[in-house]
Request: fold
Amino acid sequence: MSPSTIWILIILAGLGTFLLRLSFLGLVAGEVSPLVRRALRLVPAAALTALVIPALVPPAGSPATGLADWFRLIAAVVAVLVARRTGSMFLTILAGMAVVWLLTWAT
Amino acid sequence: MSSIRQVLARGAADVIPVLPGIVPFGMIAGASAVAAGLEPVVAQGLSVILFAGASQLAAAELLSMGAAWPVILLTILVINLRFVMYSAALSPYLARLSLPAKCGLAYLITDQGFAVTVARQHRQPQAPHVAWYYLGASLALWLTWQLGTLAGILVGSLVPASWQLEFAAPLVFLALLVPLLTDRGSVAASLVAGILVLAGRSLPGNLGLVLAALGGVAGGLVAEQWRDRVRRKGAPS
Reply:
């Protein structure tokens, strides 16, 4: 992607995000309908899962499906447990990274 | 009656507990943007213009995967759809402000700034100067976020590849995701999105990601609908 394309992308994304933020503060009156509110509430859980899963599960049918391909999934399971227990962003990242480093180092 | 300056400072003070989570998040967003091939100025520009961490990190991830730009744009906007909810919830408190003031405060909307402001008004419905409280909280978050991404941009390129820093991005997503999975609708949305994203992996330009997110929302709505129907029949939930 060329530098100018990236700037255009950033500006469009920024403008769109700004309009989402301004929506009910300055663009539209009234309230969010109950169905839309329910849908909006579910967006972060769905979007974050769609972002995280491909980074953890190695592509099916890839030539090298060795043990090392599963290190990140194992580390993610540990990170989820730490996140549930501590609720700490920092400790979650640290735990996940530590497991990957340890598994890489041990094999 | 507390002065405007005191309320502003109180807002800033009330977000201090979340700042230790914002700093590593910001650093990883900055480092990921540089690792995706963005010039440092562009990476910081992304952070200032978007000011929305999860979507910045997603943009960096998709750029490094070579995703098509319309898909990147769409993904960013889907992740930031939740701001509509915050905009609606904040509007009664900020209704009397001028449009320029509303624009400034809208730009500053974040999960954390929204959360502390609504929590304060819930505790003390008559608490004065809501806009100033929200501004104090938001400015503290903005400054911390920008300094965090700047630090990540400067330090990120020095980290050796053997540290596998690129794995920090999915870990951030997990840390944001786990606290959301507290009810049937969210769990269903997450499960459906996870299955769909694996099924749609071969779609061009990472389009599968957006479709999986939207499919997950639909799945979550269906699960909630189903639960409500069971409840109305009087069966145990």
Q: What stands out?
A: Residues 130-156 of chain B form the longest helix (27 residues).
